[in-house]
């Protein structure tokens, strides 16, 4: 699950991580009031208006309605903040991560202007090779980390956090010194790192990225931006975090799938996939690509799916406007083939079938499942193997 920058900063502030003073605004009048409050409290007339969407690259992005305006704008005075906010709110921001369709901005963050001496990059994420939290840091803050990794890989520092002892002081200091920091700034950076790791663990994050992390003219360290993603499997422990979800920023199909306990990710291809088991789903997508086509989605119905969940999964697949065919690939272990067959037949009868459908069943109650499909009176093509199924659906959709 993702959240907005202002929400991420709220969580970090609660964890003791230094962040700038800021306030979210949903209207131009709220933006003006927020800017007036910041100016009065800080004595700094410069404020920053930051569009809030679930995508990176906002500063480099451009609004469709205002091609000369980026998603982050530094202004002077409350009236200027209100003027920019009015342009941003309700407009569509296109960034490198949104695609050409962009995302509509429904809220902006009004933030105090900062005296920035330098910009750094910092992230905490899970290193699956070691099973540990990995700290990544770079002196090249404000840039895409992928670009830094390609052009200056030596500028990316990594530090593994021992799960038994947490972020040790000497590890934190090593990162700070590796970034070229000295004196009180290095000490503040070490403290900052410890708080970031604590927040990452306590909130069950899957990724916590600060880009840029700034060093101010006074030598302080502060999170100027914040991007946080959470482990969906741990959200039951964090109802307060789950309440931060902005459903308008999420893919409607993925949101619907989540309500049914389905693992679904929309892709750019044309062949819809319904599979049980993540590994089998990946193999199914691979073999579709092998035979010259592209999968339209990843969809794992799980091992204990009911007919209702299978029907819901089939309906979600069929909502894809680019869909040209569907491949159902089920290996019945815990999941029974007749359950899948009944779900598919029920879904097709409810919503109709306008594209080719190939079903490959194997395992528990496979003969009963095939019999249900054969006697359904529907135009469903059976396959004897995954290879056979993939070849058939690719050929039928050409």
UniProtKB/TrEMBL annotation:
Keywords: ATP-binding, Ligase, Magnesium, Metal-binding, Nucleotide-binding, Tricarboxylic acid cycle
Positions annotated to bind substrate: 276, 333-335
One GO CC term on file: succinate-CoA ligase complex
Lineage top rank: taxon: Bacteria
Reaction catalysed by this enzyme: succinate + ATP + CoA = succinyl-CoA + ADP + phosphate; GTP + succinate + CoA = succinyl-CoA + GDP + phosphate
Top EC class for this record: ligase
GO biological process, one term: succinyl-CoA metabolic process
Metabolic or biological pathway: Carbohydrate metabolism; tricarboxylic acid cycle; succinate from succinyl-CoA (ligase route): step 1/1
Cofactor-binding details, from the entry: Binds 1 Mg(2+) ion per subunit.
UniProt-annotated binding residues for ATP: 50, 57-59, 111, 114, 119
Molecular function (Gene Ontology), one example: magnesium ion binding
Domain ATP-grasp: 9-257
Essential cofactor(s): Mg(2+)
Pfam families listed in its UniProt record: ATP-grasp_2, Ligase_CoA
InterPro entries, A to Z: ATP-grasp, ATP-grasp_succ-CoA_synth-type, ATP_grasp_subdomain_1, SUCC_ACL_C, Succ_CoA_ligase-like_bsu, Succinyl-CoA_synth-like
Sites where the protein binds Mg(2+): 211, 225
Enzyme Commission number(s): 6.2.1.5
Quaternary state and interactors: Heterotetramer of two alpha and two beta subunits.
Family label: Belongs to the succinate/malate CoA ligase beta subunit family.
Protein purpose: Succinyl-CoA synthetase functions in the citric acid cycle (TCA), coupling the hydrolysis of succinyl-CoA to the synthesis of either ATP or GTP and thus represents the only step of substrate-level phosphorylation in the TCA. The beta subunit provides nucleotide specificity of the enzyme and binds the substrate succinate, while the binding sites for coenzyme A and phosphate are found in the alpha subunit.
Protein name listed in UniProt: Succinate--CoA ligase [ADP-forming] subunit beta
